[in-house]
Specification:
alpha/beta, Rossmann fold, 2 domains, 8-stranded mixed sheet, 3-stranded parallel sheet, 13 helices, 16% strand, binds beta-D-galactopyranose
């Protein structure tokens, strides 16, 4: 057993028994504290039974929020399943910060106290998350940066999508549509993501590159705290009031939730969203349904299954005291402190016509989920049958 693993085991045992004095129990950390998805923490033991199926480490998964459906619907279950399959004796302890960076700090500390052998951290705030990474480093616990890059700290691996490409895809597809609609220059309203999220800056940079290349003008621009639909709606309302109902040709929204907010603002102002293309991201059921009926123009599909699987494999190796498996790494990304071995997956643009060949084909959403009541006819039109 490598000495770093031994050190961590000793530390974990010590930490657990220190807590035991207070909490009366040293049961191996498979307890449920505040439970549920509302920002709490739960743990799930791997399938069990298997002998030495990749080690028996404790892997902490820390996700940033539960506003965007992906985290509870895809990331968490996909990650837990991948660990269960590849390392039946490993345990995943799960935390969701519920959009609160301070809460994520304490969750990071709790994960370390519970003896996590590796942290898989999707930072709520990429800058303040550095202190979680530092605490982990100080205890010899490796850190995997999941989906969002933790800045200015020692991070062992980073698994995400090509996030600048996400922005480019959104801009390219909106620019094309504006051209088709006879408004090649826009102008557009830009509803960007959360300023604390490093991915939001990359989406924005990629999108601006695309709009500049296409000659599309940006009339108003906002960052959206917390990525919430409510904030996006308020921003779009402000823009519409300032520009007038005929003062813009489309809306760039950084994800499906903010796109939904922008569409609600248009409806509120008496504008038919079918006549003003809106972008999105995450291929949520609500986003795809709006695309089916023509209220949202496009979304970006990021296949979370592979992202979660690769992250699980890397976390299992690190939790076992091994190096990051080199064959998985595709590039290095600098986080301000170090070149982080990284895997960046390819995002895919989705419009009405390729819903069937992308998200449905990959099983990301099912026809049953999508083609309910008012959407059944549109599903039929594009050959999706439930
Ligand atoms: C980003 C993530 C997106 C989106 C957004 C809102 O960091 O890459 O997929 O979900 O956060 O949480």
């Amino acid at each position: 057993m490598p000495s770093s693993v031994l050190r961590r085991l000793l530390f974990a045992a010590l930490a657990c028994c220190v807590i035991a004095v207070v909490a009366a129990g040293c049961g191996g950390g498979d307890d449920t504290t505040s439970g549920g998805t509302g920002g709490g923490e739960t743990s799930a033991e791997g399938g069990g039974g298997g002998e030495e199926g990749g080690g028996d480490s404790t892997i902490a998964l820390l996700l940033p929020e539960n506003e965007t459906p992906r985290y509870e619907t895809n990331d968490r279950p996909d990650f837990e399943e991948a660990v269960e399959e590849k390392c039946p004796d490993c345990e995943v302890i799960y935390f969701n910060a519920g959009g609160d960076a301070t809460k994520q700090q304490s969750q990071g500390e709790a994960a370390l106290t519970k003896g996590a052998d590796v942290l898989v951290l999707d930072p709520m705030d990429s800058k303040s998350a550095a202190s979680i990474a530092e605490k982990a480093n100080a205890q010899d616990v490796p850190v995997v940066s999941y989906d969002r890059l933790i800045e200015n700290s020692e991070v062992d691996a980073y698994i995400s999508f090509d996030n600048e490409r996400v922005g480019e895809l959104q801009a390219e597809s909106l620019s094309e549509k504006l051209k088709e609609d006879g408004s090649p220059k826009g102008p557009i309203i830009m509803i960007n993501g959360d300023p604390a999220d490093p991915n939001a800056a990359l989406f924005k940079a990629g999108a601006k590159k695309g709009f500049e290349a296409a000659g599309v003008e940006i009339a108003k621009e906002y960052d959206t705290p917390g990525w919430t639909a409510e904030n996006a709606q308020r921003e779009a309302q402000q823009a519409i009031t300032a520009l007038g109902n005929d003062g813009f040709a489309g809306i760039y929204a950084a994800n499906d939730d903010t796109g939904g907010g922008a569409i609600a603002a248009m409806k509120g102002a008496g504008i038919n969203p079918e006549e003003r293309p809106v972008t999105g991201q995450d291929a949520t059921v609500a986003g795809l349904q709006r695309i089916l009926v023509g209220q949202q123009y496009m979304t970006v599909f990021k296949s979370i299954g592979p992202q979660a699987q690769i992250s699980a494999e890397i976390a299992i190796a690190l939790g076992n005291g091994e190096e990051v498996p080199k064959d998985k790494i595709t590039e290095e990304v600098n986080n301000g402190k170090t070149d982080v071995p990284s895997v960046l997956l390819e995002p895919v643009a989705v419009v009405k016509d390729n819903i069937k060949d992308t998200v449905i084909k990959e099983g990301f959403v099912s026809a049953g989920e999508l083609c309910t009541g008012p959407y059944a006819a549109a599903c039929k039109e594009v050959g999706i049958s439930g």
